[in-house]
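in:
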């Protein structure tokens, strides 16, 4: 059977964006190819024009069209699924995070035949076998199946507990060498599924409830299988790799796993790497292990510097003291520190958002990334926004474009001001923290009052920043097409890459 995956992966703010890898699509492709099916991919890295989209679907001649989508494309799925159905005449299945979080919404789309709720490997393989044999697919578990005007909501399957049993992800469906991170010599690697925590802004708790699990919902490859798979994928796809970036929610599940993984990684891979961690899971011993293993950078979620928001709204179970201790440990062990932050959260104000800036100034990360809160379906904060009438219906392709939750106490312009100028504001607050005696507290107090004053021109600064971003983005895209050499000479890479080059040379 010929299966065409369609993977929307847009980024309207990154110049010369060429897409990222989807481990979900790669895993599904591997399972289907093992069963003898033909697999293709339409990787949408720019908003598609209708005729081009239809032509590419027709050229693939699919017998099944499979979308993998997140909630950033929820409203556009209606058009895309219709175009795919009309261009191919093939049945359409939609899976991915959004289908699991909002199956009612997805299954209501007129040209969606199957909605996959939960993990898709077994369900999609069974669907292909069933369609190929001409049998009735109405009872396939994990699928909501359209039958005329009604939808059959089949029971979920248990989650796959043994990730080692799955085949290696198949990256050959992607134009691998052109992917955004691959072009910079970075290999993104995922060796786990899930997360043990239930933060209210994150979809993980909703994903856990979508399928029964007799074991752990947070699952890892075994250390040996992870290293063997990584070595195989690197040799096959990126032998010139400069950095491995582990994109798991948290790098390791427990110390014993890391202690087994470390010597295997050093012997078989031996490359510098970056990873995600949670502050309260770092101690002196694990920090030393990470350093000795070759970790150059650890990315930590700060999210908010307001303790009320952290504990009562986000429910992270994490205190500012945990973050200060973790950042100090990483600094002591010579590893770079990135911070992930959010702005525009429910109940947040400009003053409480500035507390996040102040905390970052104390933590002193090498790189601070700020996302605008996105109310994902199925999350507790989405329900809170809906109950308060704060949902706008806006849809953006990434977290940094615009505001999707209307907060009466935190105007949109102020949200954008904090997000657009976050790193500059960190530097501004940090200058005062180097002063002696009581001056740091006074400096912070004066800055808070100045920046939040109605007389401060936040709206004008945002308009200027937006204009500059548009001009820079358009100029960059023009240079990429007309003179890529000049684009590179003018520094046509993101600042992260320049930082990584410096770190790798160390």
């Amino acid at each position: 059977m010929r299966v065409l995956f369609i993977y929307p992966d847009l980024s309207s703010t990154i110049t010369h964006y060429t897409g990222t890898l989807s481990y979900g699509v790669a895993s599904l492709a591997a399972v289907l190819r093992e069963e003898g099916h033909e697999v293709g991919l339409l990787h949408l890295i720019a908003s598609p024009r209708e005729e081009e989209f239809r032509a590419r679907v027709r050229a693939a001649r699919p017998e099944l069209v499979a979308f993998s989508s997140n909630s950033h494309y929820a409203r556009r799925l209606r058009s895309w699924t219709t175009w795919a159905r009309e261009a191919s005449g093939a049945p359409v299945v939609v899976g991915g995070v959004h289908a699991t979080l909002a199956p009612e919404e997805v299954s209501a789309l007129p040209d969606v035949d199957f909605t996959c709720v939960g993990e898709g490997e077994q369900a999609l393989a069974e669907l292909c076998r069933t369609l190929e044999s001409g049998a009735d697919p109405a009872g396939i578990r994990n699928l909501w199946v359209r039958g005329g005007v009604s939808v059959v909501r089949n029971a979920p399957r248990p989650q796959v507990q043994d990730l080692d049993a799955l085949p290696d992800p198949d990256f050959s469906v992607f134009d691998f060498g052109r992917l955004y991170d691959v072009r910079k010599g970075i290999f993104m690697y995922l060796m786990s599924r899930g997360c043990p925590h239930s933060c209210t802004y994150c979809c993980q708790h909703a994903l856990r409830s979508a399928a029964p699990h007799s074991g752990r919902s947070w699952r890892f490859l075994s250390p040996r299988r992870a290293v063997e798979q990584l070595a195989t994928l690197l040799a096959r796809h990126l032998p010139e790799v400069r950095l491995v970036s582990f994109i798991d929610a948290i790098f390791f599940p427990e110390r014993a796993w890391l202690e087994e993984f470390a010597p295997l990684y050093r012997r078989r891979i031996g490359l510098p790497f970056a990873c995600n961690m949670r502050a309260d899971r770092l101690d002196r011993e694990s920090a030393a292990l990470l350093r000795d293993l070759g970790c150059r950078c650890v990315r930590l979620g700060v999210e908010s510097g307001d303790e009320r928001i952290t504990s009562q709204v986000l429910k992270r179970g994490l205190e500012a003291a945990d973050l200060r201790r973790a950042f100090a440990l990483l600094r002591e062990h010579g590893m770079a520190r990135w911070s992930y932050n959010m702005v525009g959260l429910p109940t947040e104000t400009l003053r409480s958002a500035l507390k996040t800036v102040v905390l970052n100034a104390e933590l002193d990360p090498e790189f601070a990334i700020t996302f605008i809160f996105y109310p994902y379906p199925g999350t507790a904060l989405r329900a809170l926004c809906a109950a308060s009438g704060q949902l706008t219906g806006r849809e953006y392709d990434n977290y940094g474009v615009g505001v999707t939750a209307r907060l009466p106490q935190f105007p949109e312009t102020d949200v954008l001001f904090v997000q657009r100028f976050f790193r500059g504001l960190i530097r501004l607050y940090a200058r005062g923290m180097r002063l002696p005696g009581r001056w740091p507290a006074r400096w912070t107090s004066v800055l808070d009052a100045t920046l939040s004053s109605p007389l401060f021109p936040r709206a004008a600064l945002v308009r200027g920043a937006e204009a500059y971003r548009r001009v820079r983005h358009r100029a960059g895209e023009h240079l990429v097409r007309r003179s890529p050499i000049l684009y590179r000479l003018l520094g046509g890479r993101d600042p992260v890459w320049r930082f990584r080059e410096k770190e790798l040379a160390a």
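note: The longest strand covers residues 295-303.
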